[in-house]
């Protein structure tokens, strides 16, 4: 036996880095065993972090002192707060990242952990003793003893790349697949499935006619992911916006039989909400064009990621269709797009701690559990790493719940419903989304992280001081009172009911803010900006929070409602086509069964309920 560890994390992608960090922060002697040290923190596909639902996950990881938020802040080159005009509950922080800066920042974070050792190697087998994990063996014959293992092999398990009719065994472009571990998982009697994902060609920035296309700018006031980042200091860039044309569609249609996806060569299921360009043309061909964002992969990087045209067509067809797109007529392709198929484990094999039910001490996180996306992988990594460390120390597992976090929503979805296609996070998956906001992730989760021992002193101190400021600010707002007459003299219109209202109550009016109320109470200027924003959101949502609770109770009652056998799901307005198809295939007998259909959201359930009620 080479060395013994409490926890061995296999794979240093997004899940593996968070898992290793969480295990090490929990105090476990941890090893991060991965193919190559220099690929720690590599972004396999799009150079971006966050977005709707995903941004919430990043904030939650950060609130638990995980790495992703800080690393994204150190490498983000185009911060945008999505849904800025909508309510705070559905705003999604997002940034494009400089690939190199992201990788370097992640490697720096990993190197800073005291009880974390990085080992280069190909994990080939995992052994068990008396029904519990005992060691990991590498392909070159080294054996490491351990209390627990976290497996985070991403798209590498029997990975197979497809470019047209060409197939290449690989974990991602230029890297060998992981062959041995699929055998280990099969030996354990686990249910394995096959999924697929895809990526577009990479374009040479110097050969794009940027003057011929539109652009999208970064926000003027970049909002950081991490509660520990005061200000974003990386340079911010804009990205290009263009569209496919009729000529693009024609080339794709004429060559569709050559696409790996449409020739029957790929057996794995891909994410329908993140379709390839072939999918878009086949399914929505009547549209006159599909939007493409040209996202530079870094400040000094010549590669550009054309977001929206992932493909598995042959390389020459890719070049032909890409050159029909405005701005790309003379573009040079640095690397063709491809699809990749890989093995995944049915996540219903896992407990809510992400430990296998069939083998104590073996935890799984990331793409291996049927999810897609860096953020989903990272969030699972944190949970698995934390619980692997707790298991090695013979402590009780910690389960996140649907009511405390998107992390809890995702893990409950995965472990109770399984997946039929790669799972990604959407805000609509959460039934408590008014309380599970990106802006309050620290209030929801940092106290939990502190009690679990995974939050460092610096964050803990900053959090305490923020909570004190928040309490103080709330007290001030509640103590300042005004009558409707006095308010009217300062231009604030209220019901003339003679009732005194506090500044806190006035913030429930969407048109009011701590800034507008300074006309009445100039002292509000002294409340810290983050505290002002937090109290505005808290006051705005206070009344809705009561309604949310009542709605949840009513939905639970409605779950028993029967769906008529002749019900036509196609007639449901506002539902995605894929959900309609799934409902028609499953034909749930009642609302409770419909709720369990993969991809079903609380909003879709409400629509279904309304129509059933109408049916009588
Ligand atoms: P990965 O990031 O894949 O990391 C796996 C790590 O494990 C690597 O470091 C690897 O070297 C290591 N490893 C594997 N096997 C072994 C072994 N036996 N021994 C030691 N180390 C091992 N996500 C989206 O959200 N949208 C997309 O459009 C999208 N498209 C994608 C397209 C492609 C072609 C690929 C490859 C991925 C795509 N993804 C996409 C997925 C995204 O890259 C993953 O969700 C994310 O990287 C998963 O993180 P992970 O940590 O689970 O695995």
How would you characterize the overall build of this protein?
The structure is a single chain. It contains 18 helices and 22 strands. It has helices spanning about 15-25, 55-65, 70-75, 100-110, 180-185, 245-255, 275-285, 315-320, 375-390, 405-415, 440-450, 455-480, 485-490, 505, 530-560, 575-585, 590-595, 600-615, and strands at about 5-10, 30-35, 50, 75-80, 90-95, 115-120, 125-130, 130-140, 145-150, 160-165, 165-170, 190-200, 200-205, 215, 240-245, 290-295, 305, 335, 340-345, 360-365, 480, 500. It is globular and about 80 Å long. α1 packs parallel to α9. With about 625 residues, it is of the alpha+beta class. The strands form five sheets. Strands 1, 2, 6, 7, 8, 9 and 20 form a seven-stranded mixed beta sheet that branches. The chain has a six-stranded antiparallel beta sheet with strand order 14-15-16-17-13-18, with no helix packed on it. Strands 11-10-19-12 form a four-stranded antiparallel beta sheet. The chain binds flavin-adenine dinucleotide. NAD-binding protein involved in the addition of a carboxymethylaminomethyl (cmnm) group at the wobble position (U34) of certain tRNAs, forming tRNA-cmnm(5)s(2)U34. One of its GO terms (biological process) is tRNA methylation. One of its GO terms (cellular component) is cytosol. This is tRNA uridine 5-carboxymethylaminomethyl modification enzyme MnmG.
